[in-house]
Specification:
The complex is a heterodimer of chains A (about 130) and B (about 375). Chain A is α/β, with parallel strands linked by helices and about 130 residues long. In chain A, about 45% of the residues lie in helices and about 20% in strands. Chain A is globular, with a radius of gyration of 13 Å. The relative contact order of chain B is 0.08. Classes of the chains: A alpha/beta (about 130), B alpha+beta (about 375). Chains A and B meet through helix 1 of A and helix 6 of B.
Chain lengths: ~130, ~375
């Protein structure tokens, strides 16, 4: 069981991810943009953040830039979950500290749980 | 020395002078009308001549430039704005090499804006000594803007098209995986239709975006040492479900080569296309074989005993959107893009692509690479792969 912060502006999708991850016994906190995510991360102390990129107010990349300055943020795993995909985008998010990059429309609930488990495993082994 | 002043000589000289004047005027008009920007310098790098396009692109008048050292008046910079030192300027290199130099860089205009240019500099050799240089350069601003628009379109299209698909995909899979309670077998079969359609739409977007990427400019070739058995087993494994569903047996054989230097993502795209077509266009009970051989090249082939390609369609097999009549009849879901994409990728990998086919007996598609593999290439885009 892990603390997972979901950062996604699409209300239907964030509900779906929350339902799937809760059913796998994870503790969930939701944020709908980068600003809310920064605030939520302070209180919630996530083990993993599932992060969308294109969001209003503060984008996923802007969130990463700010969040990675925070103390202890290095230990928190980041999965970027987006429908954007080009090489520049990938390079940018990896250089900002993301651990995985997944295309949303290709990933169903099983795929999501598998990737979350894989990434959390790397946290445990580190 | 006595000067010959007889009438016929004077008249002859006048005529020659008039011809020389006319030629000079013609040369000058020709120089100023050249469709590319031109700068001529002496052996010290001082500007001797410029044409009107140079004035237009750089913002300086010819009076401001002529007599000035080229390096001093026109600064060359890299993409990030850092100054290119004199020693690295194409004109210096052309002088040192004694031959033409082609380079892409940015010039700073009089108004301090960066203009992307393609330069072509040749030394002017007079009496076996370099006596100056001529630089022809082309303003790439319009091309850069076009590339930026194309790149933004690809990025936006992939996002906008996939956003609704993400919800359809996630919720339909949640239904079938029991997150909303157990479904009846009829409900499950209905959801399965939605899932298949979603997956097909995802594949279509993936393929169309890759075609757009290829057509928007060169794609990057990331060369790695590929374990051929690993890659082929993986590709065959990913298509086993489709083969099973269509009642096709699929096998892989390789008895001659273990690795090749190429781009695994691009190679995978070519072979997946061959295999998917072979499975789709072979009747139930058929056989599909992926084979790797090495002689003077590494040859990948995919053989089926399917419907084959009609004679009249053979010339168009690699054309975009082309589908043979019997292909349309036997599988309505194809787009006619896969083999077009495979051919474009093959060219980028320095590979050859061809096929043999006999109607109602089957087809074999071949893709060959040089034994030394493909060369690394920097492009504007990376091909997208499903994760």
């Amino acid at each position: 069981m892990a603390n997972i912060l979901l950062v996604e502006d699409d209300k239907d999708l964030i509900e779906a991810y929350a339902l799937v991850l809760k059913a796998a016994n994870h503790k969930i906190k939701k944020a709908y943009n980068g600003n809310e995510a920064l605030l939520a991360a302070k209180e919630f102390k996530p083990d993993l953040i599932l992060l969308d990129l294109l969001m209003p107010i503060k984008s996923g990349k802007e969130f990463l830039k700010d969040y990675k300055k925070a103390k202890n943020s290095k230990e928190v795993k980041i999965i970027v979950f987006s429908n954007l995909q080009d090489s520049n985008e990938l390079e940018d998010v990896y250089s900002l500290g993301a651990d995985r990059y997944i295309i949303k429309s290709w990933t169903g609930p099983h795929g999501l749980l598998k990737i979350v488990d894989e990434v959390l495993e790397t946290k445990d082994t580190n | 020395m006595p000067v010959n002043t007889d009438k016929s000589t004077i008249s002859k000289l006048k005529k020659e002078l008039s011809i020389a004047h006319r030629d000079l005027k013609k040369a000058s008009t020709l120089f100023s009308s050249i469709g590319e920007a031109v700068i001529v310098t002496d052996e010290y790098g001082r500007i001797e001549r410029v044409n009107s396009l140079t004035e237009k692109i750089l913002g300086y008048s010819s009076n401001e430039m002529i007599g000035q050292r080229f390096f001093n008046i026109v600064k060359a910079v890299n993409e990030d704005g850092t100054l290119i030192p004199e020693i690295d300027r194409p004109i210096t290199k052309a002088f040192l090499k004694g031959s033409a130099v082609f380079e892409r860089l940015y010039y700073l205009t009089k108004y301090n804006s960066m203009v992307p240019v393609d330069t072509n500099v040749s030394p002017i050799i007079f009496n076996n000594k370099p006596s100056g240089a001529i630089e022809v350069f082309r303003d790439l601003t319009d091309e850069y803007i076009k590339e930026k628009i194309q790149s933004e379109f690809i990025s936006l299209a992939s996002h906008q098209l996939r956003t609704p698909l993400s919800s359809i995909n996630t919720y339909s899979q949640m239904l079938s995986q029991g997150y909303a309670g157990k479904l009846t077998s009829k409900q499950l079969s209905f959801v399965s239709v939605i899932e298949k359609a979603t997956s097909r739409m995802n594949d279509l977007i993936h393929t169309l975006l890759n075609v757009t990427r290829i057509e928007a400019g060169n794609i990057t070739v990331n060369v790695k040492s590929i374990d051929i058995d690993n890659l082929c087993d993986e590709i065959v494994g990913s298509l086993e479900y489709l083969a099973l569903e269509r009642g096709i047996s699929i096998k892989y054989t390789n008895d001659s080569i273990t690795s090749v230097e190429s781009d695994p993502v691009l190679l995978r795209e070519v072979l997946s296309n061959f295999l998917t077509n072979a499975i789709k266009y072979t009747p139930r009970g058929g056989r599909v074989t992926l084979r790797v051989e090495a002689n003077d090249r590494v040859v990948f082939s995919v053989k089926d005993n399917g419907y084959g390609i009609p004679e009249q369609s053979k010339n168009y097999v690699f054309s975009k959107f082309y589908r043979a009549n019997n292909a349309v009849k036997n599988d309505v879901t194809g787009t006619g893009i896969g083999l077009y994409l495979a051919k474009e990728i093959a060219e980028r990998l320095e590979g050859d692509i061809w096929f043999k086919s006999e109607i109602n007996k089957g087809s074999t598609f071949y893709f060959s690479l040089p034994l030394i593999g493909s060369a690394e290439k920097q492009g504007k885009f990376t091909l997208e792969i499903p994760n």
